[in-house]
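WARN retry 2 of 3 for item q-0093 after timeout on previous attempt; input resubmitted unchanged.
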Amino acid sequence: MARAGFEAWDDTGSARHPAVITEAAESFEVQHRARVRRYTILMSIRIPALILAGIAYSELGNPWVAIAIIVASVPIPWIAVLGANDRPAKKKKERLAYTAGPIAAPAIEPARHTIIDG
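OK item q-0093 returned
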């Protein structure tokens, strides 16, 4: 019988170790809100950049400065979409790391073929 507060099951199937809420992943809503915020910030940079290109062309009379600003703003939507679709970074415990150790035996042993002369 499990004590109150210790009903959470761990990976081994025992109720001895309670779940630690600080290790739980953020909820989908929190992740979604952060991704929307990141997308909005990045896309809000693009419109002022285009306006700045127009102002630079009208004030300086140099189209190359305006073109440079526009070219710099072209990848912003792509970066914003990639950032919005990206999942949160893995925690240190979740990261895969190579650990040196003995090489495991192959799952399938090589078949022995008998050769029949005849």
